[in-house]
């Protein structure tokens, strides 16, 4: 069982050094590490200096990153879209993701954002549990049709 007594601090991305962002991306493993867009999110100084980026620290070590975009179209254009949330493996189960989300929720409330939207994979039960415990609800379903050879039999 993970030690949950860690000192977690969340700061705006503009207050974090490029080196700290790089440490978070370099420390990822699993499916997140395979995503080439993570380096862009972590290292784009202009994007991370915007209001919707947070960096988490446990005992002064960088360990989590959250990046959002302001929604500008559609019925929820007063809200935020959660582009990315990544927590280093050694910092998982310590409350880092929750601290990042609480920081984001508080920022959104203080800046008149109507809501926060995100996509989470159906098999990511821990993330779904976190989001539901914070009050998120399913609004739609994302679906995909494979169009390669021998796929889409229902469209014959």
Report on this model:
This protein is an alpha+beta fold and 156 residues long. The chain has one domain (8-137): 3-Layer(aba) Sandwich (Aminopeptidase). It contains five helices and five strands; from the N terminus they run E-H-H-H-E-E-E-H-E-H. A five-stranded mixed sheet has the order 1-2-3-4-5, with helices on both faces. The longest helix is centred in the middle third of the chain and has 15 residues, at 96-110. It is globular and about 55 Å long. The N and C termini lie far apart (51 Å).
Observed structural traits:
single chain, about 160 residues, alpha+beta
Biggest sheet details = 5 strands, mixed
Number of helices: 5
How many whole angstroms does the radius of gyration measure?
A: 17 Å
Globally, the shape reads globular
Alpha-beta classification = alpha+beta
Q: How many runs of DSSP E, i.e. beta strands?
A: 5
**What string, H for helix and E for strand, traces the elements in order?**
EHHHEEEHEH
Strand adjacency order, main sheet: 1-2-3-4-5
Any idea of the CATH topology?
A: Aminopeptidase
Overall helicity = 25-40%
CATH architecture: 3-Layer(aba) Sandwich
Instruction: Let me know the CATH homologous superfamily.
Output: Gcn5-related N-acetyltransferase (GNAT)
Give the CATH level 1 class: Alpha Beta
Mean pLDDT: 79
Q: What share of the residues does DSSP label as strand, in percent? A: 15-25%
Count of spatially separate domains: 1
For the record, give the distance between the C-alpha atoms at the N and C termini, rounded to a whole number: 51 Å
Unreliable stretches: none
């Amino acid at each position: 069982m993970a030690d949950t007594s860690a000192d977690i601090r969340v700061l705006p991305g503009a207050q974090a050094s490029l080196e700290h962002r790089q440490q978070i991306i370099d420390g990822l493993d699993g499916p997140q590490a395979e995503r080439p867009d993570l380096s862009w999110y972590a290292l784009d100084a202009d994007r991370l200096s915007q209001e919707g980026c947070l960096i988490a620290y446990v005992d002064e070590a960088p360990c989590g990153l959250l990046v959002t975009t302001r929604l500008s179209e559609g019925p929820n254009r007063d809200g935020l879209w959660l582009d990315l949330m990544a927590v280093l493996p050694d910092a998982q189960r310590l409350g880092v993701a929750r601290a990042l989300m609480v920081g984001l929720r508080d920022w959104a409330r203080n800046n008149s954002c109507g809501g926060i939207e995100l996509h989470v994979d159906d098999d990511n039960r821990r993330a779904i549990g976190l989001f539901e415990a914070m009050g998120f609800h399913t609004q739609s379903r994302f679906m995909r049709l494979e169009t390669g050879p021998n796929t889409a039999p229902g469209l014959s």
